[in-house]
Amino acid sequence: MEALQQFLPLIIIFGIFYFILIRPQQQKQKKHKLMLDSMQKGDKVITIGGIYGIIKDIKGDTLTLEIAKDVVINTTRNAIGVKREK
Predict the structure, then answer these.
(1) What pTM does this model have?
(2) Minimal CA–CA distance to 67: which of 17, 78, 59, 80?
(3) C-beta separation of 68 from 59 below 8 A
(4) Secondary structure tally for the chain: helices H, strands E
(5) Are the CB atoms for 83 and 39 separated by under 8 Å?
(6) Integer Cα distance of 43 and 36 in angstroms
(7) Residue 78 — very low, low, confident or very high, per pLDDT cuts 50/70/90?
(8) How far, in Å, are 23, 53, 68 from residue 72 at the CA level?
(9) What is the pLDDT of residues 23-58, one digit of tens each?
């Protein structure tokens, strides 16, 4: 009984950290993964480096982005930060 009383504050602190820090981060990662999996040709995106582009081709984890007229770059799927609205 005394041992439980000693560890109870630690258990409560861990619970608070889980619901304030860990769980929201996991939900954010899950939402980002769903966004990455749903990308299609023609989607407007912003890379994590801040480059705006339109997806022209998808081959596995490699995306071809058109960043200006007749200027294309290849990047990985994980380099996409945000999907812009059309």
Answers:
(1) 0.74
(2) 80
(3) no
(4) 2, 5
(5) yes
(6) 11
(7) very high
(8) 38, 9, 7
(9) 999 999 999 999 999 999 999 999 999 999 999 999
